[in-house]
Amino acid sequence: MQNIYEQHLPRTAANFVALSPVSFVERSAEVFGDLPAVVHGARRYNWAQTRERSARLAGALRALGVGRGSTVSVMLPNTPEMVESHYAVPALNAVLNTLNTRLDASLLAWQMNHCEASVLITDREFAPVVAVALRELRTNFGRELVVIDVCDSEYTGPGERLGMHEYEALLAAHAPLPRLEGPADEWDAIAVSYTSGTTGDPKGVVTHHRGAYLNAVCNATTWTMPQFPRYLWTLPMFHCNGWCFPWTVAMQGGTHVCLRRVEAKAIFDAMREHAVDHYCAAPIVHNLLIAAPEALRAGITQPVRGMVAGAAPPAAMIEGMARIGIHITHVYGLTEVYGPAAVAVQRPSWAGESLSEQTRLNGRQGVRYPLQEGMTVLHPESLAEVPADGQTMGEIMFRGNIVMKGYLKNPAATEKAFAGGWFHTGDLAVMEHDRYVKIKDRSKDVIISGGENISSIEVEDALYRHPAVMACAVVARPDPKWGETPVAYVELKTGATATESEIVAHCKQLLAGYKVPREIRFEEIPKTSTGKIQKFQLRERAKSASAIE
User: How many other C-beta atoms can be found within 10 angstroms of the C-beta atom of residue 388?
Assistant: First the structure.
């Protein structure tokens, strides 16, 4: 029997609307239409123009047969067309698949076939690899895509057109949709993003409109991002849909400052010219800024806030950003939770601590985003919460509305990831007394030497404190006596020098003897396009070298 609050109180169009970040674009066009929305080289679009261009793209895609459940792949750098794709495709209730621009043709073809893409929007800079991918799609999978070429005004290099449609001409040929509507059901998929595929085929992470909406809101509230931010795109938008920031910037009526190339000079020039006040990046990009000549920062007088994500950003990086005057907020997450879903919330009392203590506090993964329902550290099998003692190890787990729908066409992986009603991250951590979470390592990255567990992150943190170290990674090397011992791969800063003995001596001052790397290898470290170090390649190097020796 219905209670009184269920009688004559129906859900209607007047009092219930499915949550979708597309609504942020409509609002900013309506309220802030004359304010700047996108800056890219000589191009400038206000919010009214950005909304119209996105609505024209949506109209064009609809004419090409794109609708609910269709997949549109995009192979684009951080340009206006990438921003517009994030607004237009979800408005059709279609699914956006942002491709990593550094992938090889075979993997691109595999991903576009796996998600059953029907349309590809591609920048002509990537024509050589995309042409091969399209040929493989046709030959190996029997799939033909409608290809739309983007001829970016800021790109003057080589690259042929591959499709029947050119982006600007296509927009000009179609009237804008009357409104960017979004889905009827907020549980509908908004995007599919592929994991790196370090073992076997990559997994397609499917996210939904409700989660993207809520995480976009969380980004602003967590970062205390003001109205009208000027946001620099140092983070690839293909990575977790730019951590949902295409929609966060729209919500705040801000300005997207686009960037095709992530280089220190280009970043500082954009900060100076466009009064940039917010940007996101992986630790490797922040280190790039720290190591850049001081002269590049001249003339930047506005406060700049950076957001850094990663399992554990090096303490030396956080200290370095403080020295150059950029305020850092540390977040943590994964593709499966829309990018960042936890934050090291900086309490007022921290300001009175020493720089080293502030660095320690800020270096933690922290607490859940305000609209994420659960984040804790649990025993991976019993799912019992570990005590908040800073010592007992467990696995970080999430639950709530900012968690993926699951893995595309992979029910076994989805079931495993959600076992026990929690999303299992695979990150090992402790919970400190204030209930802030601190990662100790990925489960596969813990080094067990002579029965002792060694956190590769702890060793890397010590290495980063050497003034000559630009990037480093520590992995296990097979050892006949100890089982495993740590080996360190190190890249030095430009112009810096250091010997293996100097690095080892430095580590001995900071680490227990059994944690000190047995070998230092000065080699280029493999990284993803977002700057994430690919430890699986280094583990293979270490095993191979051990076998040879």
Answer: 17
What is the arrangement of strands in the sheet containing 483-492, beginning at the earlier edge strand?
469-479, 483-492, 519-522
**Contact (CB, 8 A) for 132 and 110:** no
CB < 8 Å & 24+ apart, contacts of 197-200: 197/107, 198/534, 198/536, 199/536
Over residues 292-335, the pLDDT tens digits come to: 999 999 999 999 999 998 655 677 787 888 888 899 999 999 99
For 20, the token pair is 């979708």
Length of the chain counted residue by residue: 549
Nearest-10 Cα torsion for 171, 168, 250, 65: 40
pLDDT in tens, 271-296: 999 999 999 998 878 888 998 999 99
Among positive and negative, which fits the CA dihedral 536, 539, 545, 546?
A: negative
Which residues neighbour 13 within 8 Å (Cβ) at sequence distance 6 or greater? none
φ, ψ for residue 34, nearest 5 deg: -90, -5
Residue with the two structure tokens 């009827």: 184
Q: How far apart are alpha carbons 463 and 315 in whole angstroms?
A: 10
Task: Give strand pairing partners of 163.
Answer: none
Dihedral, 100, 104, 105, 111 alpha carbons, nearest 10: -50
Nearest CA to 153 out of 47, 258, 249 is that of 258
438 to 280, 296, 312, 330: CA distances (angstroms): 21, 34, 8, 12
**Residue in this structure with the two tokens 């190097």, named with its chain if needed:** 541
Looking at residue 197, what is its pLDDT? Answer: 47
Q: Any alpha helices (H) in 223-260, and if so which ranges?
A: 240-243, 245-251
Mean pLDDT for 368-376 is 97
- Amino acid residing at 334: L
Q: How far apart are CA 546 and CA 548, in angstroms?
A: 5
**Dihedral sign computed on CA atoms, order 120, 126, 127, 128:** negative
Asked whether 83 and 50 are in contact (CB, 8 A), the reply is yes
Burial class (CB in 10 A: 0-12, 13-18, 19+), 451: exposed
